[in-house]
Specification:
- This protein is an alpha/beta fold.
- The longest helix is centred in the C-terminal third of the chain and has 17 residues.
- It starts with a strand and ends in a 5-residue tail after the last strand.
- The protein binds adenosine-5'-diphosphate and zinc ion (2 copies).
């Protein structure tokens, strides 16, 4: 009988089981090897894991279940990759197997060893070939600021905060940092992350132009499963030198990783919002340390966490305050809405400015962070409003298909002909979204002609108009080609795009964030407005005349003062002072436990019971547990939601506490409870 070995395997087991499970194998298997194993009644993909001497005592009894097969054609995942996964699982309070398996391309999970072998034979993954080396000589003459930044990157270990104005040439710095890495090491690989899928095509073309199509692969959720497997294998085997991707790419297998770039590092999209709620930015910094790879975090408006780290010297700050060429940042104009006639949507001044742009053949961009036609439909006779029957939220009126759609649960109905409550036919939209804004602007500009003497071409870009595959690309292409005079959209249009002809950016209603209960709302608004301003005047020839307009009811708010001066450091200093006084992050560390249940009472009872039981958990004395409260949207799809904030002035103490509290949470039972989850370093509280 062959010798039987116990092998630990990370599997997508239930999250109450934190570590890998033990299986038996007839052959020794190296950690990192992909295997197929039985799990319950299923057969699943697993990863051979190292033994943890500290935990081995618990697992002396060997699982009787055998490993069914190893995917030997794929080289094992590296030690540092496994360390990254282990860290992420521990830090974000999930199981190692869940994090490890979620980080692999979905198609890999479904393939048997045999199918995989066939696939590899049919379409061999390119082996690392470094005799067809990418041409790394192309590049532009650097500006002095770019040169200084690159010198800094070469001279220090980092991590770096590339604090560069929009249009200061950060992307060029990333390109040349990658170039320097590849020139110095024929095996090295780089990982470049952007917050949104929308931003990948443009970045991809810049990287391909510089390094060639063979060197670059993308990894994001907009790809088909076969594409993702192909990219993943190219990175894993070392054939791809550069991986471009969204947050999921932080877990890409890159055996020779030498550089990580996190562009727009402040963007909330880097935080995963389900499963293991990781921050790809924070993991990038950790991964850089593990792998000895340099990390560049880039932003014109860094997160206050990263800014604080650069103030304290934990991150090396590289400042690039000037725009490329003679380009200036747009002048910021505030319109005091208190002085406008009631119900004004576009102030006369703003309309006049848009008309000037039109006569000069320049483009304008108008943004409003709300899609749909109107956020609420209301009856003028009774107090009926378009509430969602399943959520504590209003359904949004979408005029284009005459529907009421819930943006939380998706519940959609045709707009009723008359008020469902009283039968009155006079029901009307309240407030406005991008669809209504576009319609209104078209009315206001109906008699205006553009520079070619033609009717004004208005286009709208938001999650609704870009739902279909390829729609976003074609809409962006139209803007770039100058086939659009005025672009109306949500924050989607404010991010990253290198629009060349836009000289006017207008925020028609940005006030909501000023008085939000979320302490991060001002930070987000400032970033959004600066980012939006950055879309204007990117072409130096027009930059002198470029403007950013903000319509507001609170023109004296200090946030707008800092915005006018493009003074992020002053804004950050003021915000950090407030946060310090209030003991908010980055001066404290938080976790949220969210519970979902049939009733609000059950959701809160679960949280409060787990809180009471925390008194016996190590490190609880260093942690504050707040009472359970309903979430801001309390009910979604008939499920009641509550949350509880856990806070500490010490990250280590919070981690220590959460690790031990984990079992308490799993042991806490409450009738009607559906599920719960821990969110470490939550972005919205
Ligand atoms: P950012 O990422 O900071 O917004 P980009 O890297 O996109 O800025 O640069 C803005 C524009 O300036 C791009 O069109 C880019 O090609 C151009 N650019 C960048 N660096 C240089 C340079 N050194 N010389 C000339 N043009 C440059
Ligand atoms: Zn009514
Ligand atoms: Zn709903």
């Amino acid at each position: 009988m062959p010798h039987r070995l116990a092998v630990l395997v990370a599997t997508p087991a239930h999250s109450s089981i934190r570590g890998p499970l033990s299986y038996r194998s007839e052959l020794p298997l190296a950690p990192g090897t992909l295997v197929r194993v039985p799990l319950g009644r299923r057969e699943v993909l697993g990863l051979v894991w190292e033994r943890d001497p500290a935990q081995d005592a618990d697992r002396l009894e060997m699982e009787e279940k055998p490993i069914l097969g190893a995917l030997e054609d794929i080289p094992p995942l590296t030690l540092t990759w496994r360390q990254l996964v282990t860290f992420a699982a521990n830090y974000y309070q999930r199981s190692v197997g869940e994090v490890a398996l979620a980080a692999l391309p979905p198609q890999l999970r479904g393939l048997s060893a045999l199918q995989l072998a066939r696939r590899l034979r049919r379409k061999p993954a390119a082996a690392p070939q470094h005799d067809a080396p990418p041409d790394v000589t192309k590049g532009v003459a650097l500006t002095p600021e770019q040169a200084l930044a690159l010198d800094g990157i070469a001279a220090h270990p980092g991590p770096f905060l590339v604090y560069g104005a929009t249009g200061s040439g950060k992307t060029e710095v990333y390109l040349q940092a990658v170039q320097a890495l590849l020139a110095g090491n024929p095996q090295a690989q780089a990982l470049v992350m952007v917050p949104e899928i929308n931003l990948t095509p443009q970045l991809e073309s810049r990287f391909i132009a510089r390094f060639g199509a063979d060197a670059v692969v993308s990894l994001h959720s907009g790809m088909t499963n076969p594409q993702r497997l192909k990219s993943w294998l190219a990175a894993h085997t070392g054939a791809a030198r550069i991986v471009l991707g969204t947050r999921m790419a932080v877990f890409a297998s890159l055996p020779a990783l030498g550089l990580i770039v996190v562009d727009e590092e402040h963007d909330p999209s880097y935080k995963q919002q389900e499963g293991a709620r990781y921050s790809a930015r924070d993991l990038a910094v950790y991964r850089g340390k593990l792998e000895g790879a340099k990390v560049l975090l880039g932003s014109a408006t860094p997160s206050l966490e990263s800014w604080q780290a650069s103030e304290k010297g934990r991150y090396q700050r590289l400042a690039m305050p000037s725009r490329i060429g003679s380009g200036q940042l747009p002048a910021v104009k505030l319109v005091d809405m208190n002085l406008q006639p009631p119900k004004t949507v576009f102030s006369v001044q703003l309309l006049e400015t848009i008309r000037q742009r039109l006569s000069r053949g320049e483009q304008s961009l108008v943004f409003l962070n709300r899609r749909g036609y109107a956020p609420v439909l209301a009856c003028n006779a009774c107090d009926w409003k378009s509430e969602c029957p399943h959520c504590s939220a209003y359904r949004v009126f979408h005029k284009i298909d005459r529907t009421l759609r819930c943006h939380h649960c998706g519940f959609t109905e045709r707009v009723p002909r008359a008020c469902p409550a009283c039968g009155n036919v006079d029901i009307a939209p309240l407030g406005r979204g991008t669809e209504r804004l576009e319609e209104h602007l078209a009315e206001l500009l109906a008699d205006t002609r553009n520079a070619q003497g033609e009717p004004v071409r208005i286009a709208r870009m938001d999650a609704d108009t870009t739902r279909l595959k390829g729609a976003l690309e074609s809409q962006l292409a139209q803007v770039h080609a100058g086939a659009v005079d005025v672009l109306v959209g949500t924050q989607m249009i404010t991010k990253g795009h290198d629009f060349r002809r836009i000289t006017l950016v207008a925020a028609v209603n940005a006030d909501a964030a000023l008085f939000s209960s979320d302490f991060r709302a001002p930070e987000r608004l400032f970033g959004l407005l600066m980012q939006a301003a950055g879309r204007a005047g990117r072409d130096a020839a027009q930059a002198g005349a470029s403007e950013m307009w903000v319509q507001t009811w609170h023109p004296a708010h200090p946030l707008f003062g800092a915005l006018r001066r493009h003074d992020y450091p002053a804004f950050a200093a003021q915000q950090l002072k407030e946060r310090e006084e209030a003991g908010m992050p980055p001066f404290s560390f938080q976790a949220l436990v969210r519970a979902e249940a049939r009733t609000q009472e059950a959701a809160q009872a679960f949280l409060n019971a787990a809180s009471a039981a925390a008194q016996d958990v190590p490190a609880h004395e260093h942690v504050t547990l707040y009472p359970a409260v309903p979430m801001s949207v309390q009910r979604v799809a008939n499920v009641e939601r509550a949350q509880m904030l856990v806070e500490s002035t010490s990250r280590a103490a919070l981690q220590h506490f959460l690790t031990h509290w984990h079992d308490v949470l799993h042991a806490t039972k409450e009738k009607g409870l559906i599920r719960w989850a821990v969110d470490v370093d939550p972005l919205a509280v």
